[in-house]
Amino acid sequence: MAGPAQLRNISQGRVTVPGSKEAVRWTFYDSILYPLLGTTRLDFFQLPQGQGITSSLGAVVGAPKTVHDTNMDLQGALPRFQDFQLESIEVDFFPGNSAAANTFTANPLVAVHAAPLVIADLDGANDESTFRQSGALILSITSKDYLREAPLLRFPAKQHRNWDGAIGGPADAAAVVGTASQYDADGRPYFLDPFLMLLSNQNFMISLTWPGLVPTPSGFNARVMCIMEGILYRNAQ
After folding, report:
1. What's the whole-number mean pLDDT along residues 81-92?
2. 9, 41, 215, 218: most buried by Cβ count inside 10 Å?
3. Which residue from 117, 113, 150 is spatially nearest to 134, judged by alpha carbons?
């Protein structure tokens, strides 16, 4: 028979506390394909898992979104009994290597253009540079705008890719020459101070807008991910 000490352990270690709330560090994310010809608007957090079209590597082309694309369960709202303290917004850009409709494949860092010549593949860097210099971000909650900022360079990702470059080899044009290139948005993440609260069943949306089409210089599709970070308040169960 369990004694008082064991009963206290059960109380202290339980992960369900009926009638109580818990607060956990959380992110909500959503991904959308950026078409090679550009677009005038991308609306995030509007198509949850099971809807829309995936842009995840390895997924079946044209299949609905999965957890690899978004962790939204509802369309543009949080489930009942969940509230989110929105503290920062990030926009991440992934250059691609496919021009096929609804298809995203990863952009290589280097490419063989004329064997044995190996040079930097600058397509991805050019695509992201163009993307970051353009566009505006609009955050709306219950049809009211709470944020309007441009360009998209204002919203760097907290985690991003770094790649150092180098050039080597003899001057002979037929010799192997290796280079590497990568472009990333850098700088202070976009923090919301004061934070904003997204309440359960309250409609919200983050939109990226452009005044006209901005094609990718590479001629390939890209992938854009929008990330909201903050504190999720939910029932402790």
Report:
1. 96
2. 218
3. 150
- Identity of the amino acid at 87: E
**Bridge partners of residue 171, in order along the sequence:** none
pLDDT of residue 111: 56
Residue bearing tokens 């109380």: 11
Helices (H), 43-146: 123-133
- What is the overall mean pLDDT for the chain? 86
In the chain, the amino acid numbered 196 is: L
**Residues contacting 197, CB < 8 A, separation 6+:** 83, 84, 85, 86
First and final C-alpha spacing in the chain: 27
- Please tell me the predicted confidence (pLDDT) of residue 125: 82
Distance of CA 230 to the CA centre of its chain: 15
CB 49 within 8 A of CB 67: yes
Alpha helices in 59-210 (DSSP H): 123-133
3-state SS assignment for residue 145: strand
* 201 neighbors 82 (Cβ within 8 angstroms): no
Instruction: Tell me the whole-structure pTM to 2 decimals.
Output: 0.83
Distance set, CA 43 to CA 72, 167, 224 (Å): 13, 41, 11
CB 222 within 8 A of CB 84: no
Q: How far is CA 228 from CA 88, 92, 97, 104, in A?
A: 6, 11, 27, 23
- Residues sharing a CB contact under 8 Å with residue 131, sequence separation 6 or more, in sequence order: 34, 93, 152, 214, 216, 222, 224
Among candidates 27, 18, 55, 19, which has minimal Cα distance to 220?
Answer: 55
Separation between Cα atoms, residue 101 and residue 114, nearest integer Å: 28
